[in-house]
Amino acid sequence: MEVVLTGGAGFLGRKLSEALLAGGTLAGPGGDGQPITRIVCIDQVKPAHPLEGVNYVCGDICDGSVLEQAIGDDTASVFHLAAVVSGQAEADFDLGMRVNLDATRALLERCRRLPNPPRFIFASSVAAFGVAPPVVDDDTPVRPLNSYGAAKVIGEYLVGEYARRGWIDGRCFRLPTIVIRPGAPNRAASSFASSILREPLRGKKAVCPVGKDLPIWIQSPRTVIANLILGHDLPPEAWEEGLRVLNLPGLTVTVSQMVAGLERAGGDSGLISWVPDAAIEAIVGAWPRGMKTPRADKLGFQPDTGIDAIIGVFQEDETGLGGGQQ
Ligand SMILES: NC(=O)c1ccc[n+]([C@@H]2O[C@H](COP(=O)([O-])OP(=O)(O)OC[C@H]3O[C@@H](n4cnc5c(N)ncnc54)[C@H](O)[C@@H]3O)[C@@H](O)[C@H]2O)c1
User: Fold this and answer.
1) At 79, is the pLDDT very low, low, confident or very high (cuts 50, 70, 90)?
2) 198 & 313 share domain
3) CA 189 to chain CA mean position, Å
4) Helix-strand-coil percent breakdown of the chain, rounded to 5?
């Protein structure tokens, strides 16, 4: 089976490519494990360290000819990871809507024209929740408070509608903030959640734009990739009628708890400067501080065990590459 990843040169795209190469199989349309014969990664940037065994298509997902080139009749699964991240989508409305919404629809249209409906995994976000109680549950309504979150919610509805019509087998997962992201800080409003750990662990300075008491809902890259693959492989019957969206389980930690974990791991918290940024606090402070995820729990999705384990994953996984894949 052929598998296509959008945003395949990005943080999670790289991790997922590695996991698919290592695992070698995914559930096919009939539910049985099938060998992955081809992995195609579409991204507007070339990966700094291309993976052997992965085919990279360098182009913009807003360009229909790029989708035509990368997605063909043998495409059995699509993981849609490409996105303009939260801070950038808020700063540039038109870019955010073009990539996060218009290209998602174009991608779904491309999939609609395939001879067999592919499994379609959409990386949504807890940014879908804006106005929400501090702890949300599976049935909390989504009321996004920024362009990124709004586009994710519309994308979820589109995936649900294309699935209802039988054009794809769609599944959307609202990801927690993924920590620790390797490489350089990006333009996600939550970027600090990784940099306040990653930089001091390497003896470098970091800036924290939010208060120490801010709780964040997080998951490690290793756990989220395992969850995305589990979500892909679930049989269609696992989904309730009209519901193709799941909140993934995560872990609530405050910035103080992250810093305490950093110190336990030998990092110097004195390297962190505390410089409040109202714009970032407004975006991240509106995201859920915790979630109850009984649907995902029942289906076998897992959270991490604690901040120490999350830091341990980073130290294990990123020592070889130095984390600079972008
Ligand atoms: N990392 C997180 O904490 C997190 C949390 C919640 C949701 N998500 C979602 O998961 C997905 C992957 O996140 P990530 O952290 O890997 O992001 P990332 O920014 O590292 O990767 C996204 C990739 O998409 C590519 N891209 C952007 N616009 C494109 C375009 N027009 N055409 C082609 N490629 C384009 C970028 O070049 C980048 O390589 C995103 O959809 C994101 O919204 C991530």
Assistant:
1) very high
2) yes
3) 14
4) 40, 20, 40
CA distance 251 to 49: 31
- How far apart CA 2 and CA 75 sit, in angstroms, is 5
- Which is the catalytic residue, given 56, 148, 157, 162? 148
Atom 7 in ligand 1: residue holding the nearest Cα:
125
In a domain, 37, yes or no: yes
Evaluate whether residue 272 is within a structural domain: yes
Predicted local confidence at residue 269, as pLDDT: 97
Return d(Cα 96, Cα 45) in angstroms, integer. Answer: 17
The confidence score (pLDDT) of residue 137 equals 95
Residue range 200-219, pLDDT digits in tens: 999 999 999 999 999 999 99
Residue 306's domain comprises 191-216+250-318
* Substitution candidate for ligand 1 out of 5, 43, 62, 99 with most atoms within 8 A of CB: 43
What CATH number should be reported for the domain holding residue 209? 3.90.25.10
